[in-house]
Amino acid sequence: MTIPDRPALPPRDRIIDAARDLFRKHGVRGIGVDAIAEAADSNKMTLYRHFGSKDDLLITCIEKAASEAEAFWVALEEAHPGDAKAQLRDWVKRAGDFVTVDHCNCELIDAAAQLVESDHPARRVIEQVRRGQLRRLTQLCRDAGIAEAELLVDALTLLIEGARVNWRSAGEGGASTRFVDAAERLIDSFATQQRVLAVG
Amino acid sequence: MTIPDRPALPPRDRIIDAARDLFRKHGVRGIGVDAIAEAADSNKMTLYRHFGSKDDLLITCIEKAASEAEAFWVALEEAHPGDAKAQLRDWVKRAGDFVTVDHCNCELIDAAAQLVESDHPARRVIEQVRRGQLRRLTQLCRDAGIAEAELLVDALTLLIEGARVNWRSAGEGGASTRFVDAAERLIDSFATQQRVLAVG
DNA sequence: GTCAGATGTGACCGGCTGGTAACATTGTCA
DNA sequence: TGACAATGTTACCAGCCGGTCACATCTGAC
């Protein structure tokens, strides 16, 4: 157990890392603070000195995931400066990895979606992060010349959320590995704008 | 509280109905047997006389949802006898309602997916039900003349699971209302078979 | 009426979990 | 060395929850 490969990290960071990992694997409700502290090679008391409550820890995790998502967009722009179409194509591929690689931090968001009590303090943060992501992706689609950018983004949202859920329940052999293919087809459909009811 | 509009239903059925509703809303982990019994206008003891454990109740709920899904396919065949293309088009529309209407029984399945412990007794049932659904949908696509039926089914799976998750977390205003549009575009794409990398 | 089976009621147990208190340990800086 | 802050350890509390027990109530069949 524990994470012996980064001894230099202070307890607070180790706790956040462990919490993100375990929240992802077991759900927010499925893991206890004791287990988180132990996995972080720390203890419950230190956890509560840094985070006032389990919810507080959860929010911190989400915020860290959000800041990493920020880096995602920066990398996209740096890889294809000024080329929105290339960025969109690259976005699909990276999102595909993002979903199927085990280190998928966004999974935090739907782990937290289990908190159906809509007044949960984490919901606000989650909504804010999600809105930011959607705004950026919509702008990217628009820059890439997609007319109905909002529609495409909604469709891509369904695909990516479905892929995350499916990955967690079905794993390697599941449908989530087809995310990239499906996303590219949708983008094609919106880019060419030729909607015929081909079936029937 | 309680469900006063069906007094004739025996306690066992009321408990199943209440459990499905509450599992859906709060997740399997988020609701207690006491609350289920009370919502069913019954009590915990009667619950445990009919179901050996909470897990047992969960499995019964999933099985009932599965049998209703069976009725779904029967209705589809009756509505368009022998016309696979029409059935596929209708499937999309019905699945769209299925997802966005609050009475979405399939949500049980991903509520149960929170049970990440892979040895949970409900997992077996869930996997079995899911496989059956996929098989039927694949056959329908094939009958409708889709060559790469498995690929299309995987893509539709992602869409529908994403729509369910998104509906729960975002509701009316969310992306899940675009499910039908996205699904039709995907079907078009697979039916016409003309995949050009239109973007870029 | 009465008998049996199903249902309802309240109390209870044990384990887990979020959270706290008190004290011990370590490490660092002067 | 001494002092201080951060961290670790142990024990504990309270509440919730899955599950059980003993007993009361109801209902329909005969």
From TrEMBL, chains A, B:
UniProt-recorded Gene Ontology molecular function terms: DNA-binding transcription factor activity; transcription cis-regulatory region binding
Keyword DNA-binding among record annotations: yes
DNA-binding region: 32-51
Alphabetized SUPFAM superfamilies for the sequence: Homeodomain-like, Tetracyclin repressor-like, C-terminal domain
Domain HTH tetR-type stretches: 9-69
InterPro entries to which the protein is assigned, alphabetical: Homeodomain-like_sf, HTH-type_TetR-like_transc_reg, HTH_TetR, Tet_transcr_reg_TetR-rel_C_sf
Gene3D superfamilies per record: Tetracycline Repressor, domain 2
Entry keyword annotation includes Protein transport: no
Pfam family, one: TetR_N
Keyword terms, alphabetized: DNA-binding
Record-given protein name: TetR family transcriptional regulator
